Automatic annotation (TrEMBL):
Keywords: Hydrolase. InterPro entries: Beta-lactam-related (IPR001466), Beta-lactam/transpept-like (IPR012338), Diverse_Enzym_Activities (IPR050789). It comes from the Bacteria. GO terms for molecular function: hydrolase activity. This is Serine hydrolase. Residues 57-324 form the Beta-lactamase-related domain.
Length: 353
């Protein structure tokens, strides 16, 4: 039996644990031919994915339907997988919902949310930092992501105290610097604005409307939801979020997410240099990455260690990949580019050509 045929079953035999019932998928299946591909190509792509080091999942939605779903290294459809910094993109959706209700604005200043943390000697620009600067990574805080990240996630209990111990080295909106610490502040902004715990709000406006029942969202040492990198989802549910965002917030004929916020977020606001594997013309906006491949726009969430949510609206395509991130950074940092080069690029080439 070919790999694509297994999609018609309720589970993949090679990924099933004997003591665990695999849930059926809610997605309708599309054949390679219906997607404009061949069985041979899809089988070969899955085989190539299986050869990638430390990969956990590889899922493709085409035209809103499930083209291929694969799990490796002991994972299966039921597995809750860390999406790391794709959590930032999900948190952006929550912010967008609050802005759509006019309870919040990108122009709001964050200083009032953290009155006990600011230090005049370290934070000369504290009264200038707006919500938009946290969303665009332009808050001006000193922050070295590569140096601070492991300590931030594994050793620090007073996460906000640790963050505010860093100075504001630049006026806001003058310098782009990837900063997970700044994004963690969104938990308080969301909670206070929604007048409920951030997780409860996420369940109310995102997970329940999208029929996502199983997930885990970590809290930091202060008890705050990690809006920067703490969410675990099933791969199919991550793909569902990508599909809903690509469809401008619609799910089952209902407007679940604010379409205006999504359109704004997918506008390439902060232009960056460099590339991500085959994806060029990188840009950033509202905690989403934006790029191009062969003149096609690619919108994506990106998480440490090879977590990818890739959306290509012009091809009606969503691709998800998860990898093991609990490895030496020299290894984990190679996962995304290897997947993009070995799997995502050939898939787009085949669909374009």
């Amino acid at each position: 039996m070919k790999i694509y045929q297994l999609l018609a079953l309720t589970f993949l035999l090679s990924c099933t644990n004997s003591d665990s019932e695999i849930e059926p998928s809610s997605f309708e299946v599309i054949s390679p031919e219906e997607a404009g591909l061949t069985h041979q190509f899809v089988d070969g792509l899955v085989n190539d994915a299986a050869e990638l080091p430390n990969i956990y999942s590889f899922v493709v939605l085409k035209n809103g339907k499930l083209l291929t779903e694969n799990y490796f290294n002991g994972k299966n459809r039921n597995s809750l997988l860390h999406i790391r910094s794709i959590t930032k993109s999900v948190s952006s959706l929550l912010i967008g919902q609050l802005i759509s209700t006019t309870k919040l604005s990108e122009d709001d200043y964050i200083e009032p949310y953290f009155t006990n943390y600011w230090q005049d000697s370290k934070h000369p620009y504290s009264d200038q930092i707006q919500l938009r600067h946290l969303l665009d990574m332009t808050s001006g805080f000193e922050w070295d992501e590569s140096a601070n990240a492991i300590q931030w996630y594994t050793q620090i209990s007073d996460t906000w105290g640790f963050f505010f111990d860093h100075a504001t080295a630049y006026p806001p909106n003058t310098y782009w610097n990837y900063n997970s610490g700044g994004v963690s502040l969104l938990a308080k902004v969301i909670g206070e604005t929604a007048q409920m715990d951030c997780l409860k709000y996420a369940d109310q406006v995102l997970f329940t409307p999208l029929e996502i029942e199983e997930y885990t969202w970590e809290r930091d040492g202060l008890g705050n939801i990690r809006t920067d990198a703490g969410l675990q989802l099933k791969a199919l549910n991550l793909a569902k979020i990508g599909l809903v965002v690509m469809n401008q917030g619609r799910f089952d004929d209902n407007q679940v997410l604010d379409s205006q916020w999504i359109a704004e977020s997918w506008n390439p606001k902060i232009r960056l240099s460099g590339s991500m594997g085959p994806i060029t013309s990188l840009a950033y906006n509202n905690l989403w990455w934006i790029g191009e491949y062969r003149e096609l726009s690619v919108y994506f969430g990106l998480g440490y260690g090879g977590q990818l949510l890739l959306c290509v609206p012009s091809l009606d395509l969503v691709v998800v990949a998860n990898h093991n991130f609990e490895l030496n950074p020299n290894v984990a940092n190679t996962h995304s580019e290897k997947f993009l080069t070995a799997i995502f690029k050939p898939l787009l080439d085949e669909l374009i050509d």
